[in-house]
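so my prof wants the structure for this chain in the tokens format not the other one, which i didnt know existed until like an hour ago. anyway here's the sequence
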Amino acid sequence: MTSTGSVPGVRGAAAGRRMGVGLMYGLWRPRVLGAWRVPASGPAILAVNHSHILDGPMLMGTAPRPVHFLIKKEAFVGPLDPFLRGIGQIEVDRDTTDRGAVLSALGVLERGGVLGIFPEGTRGEGDFASLRSGLAYFAVRSGAPVVPVAVLGSNDRPGRLAKALPALRSRIDVVFGDPFHAGDGSGRRTRSALDEATVRIQRRLTDHLADARRRASR
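here's what i got, hopefully its the right format
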């Protein structure tokens, strides 16, 4: 996929959502707040904080629409490779400018689909403290609204990259924020425009995370 830039299938992502619903609600107790904020149709980008490997599957199982995630190529190994491709996920090489992944992701948005991105690039504290420029590029290039999403409770041990899964049947909050446009309205796609968009995105995401923690009492 990374070499051809092919657009992942809609049916695959829909099947992935059905599996996510069954697994996430079967093993844990997701509490979803503000899902109505995700546009019911048309392109959208879900920008998710990332502190645990469960965050992606949890969002796939709780989002109101099927989601195509950009996932690091290291995850596409063994039986996970055909499985992830089969449910419409996009392989990306984070060590280079992966043109195929970029084209695939833009294709999802051009088709009116939902793209999921971890703007921090990798698992960390999940606080949006350091954002890569990829989210700004996709948002400005496509014009799609960005929906901030906070997953809370997947990793309740600050300072640790927890490998263990949360306790079964424990509550995990998924809080969706108000969609916004990252560009300044000028249509510029220069490096400075993307840098400015990244600053705007980071401010909106950190504000949403603080609000989500208040609403979820975490």
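also thought this was worth mentioning. The chain is about 35% helix and 15% strand.
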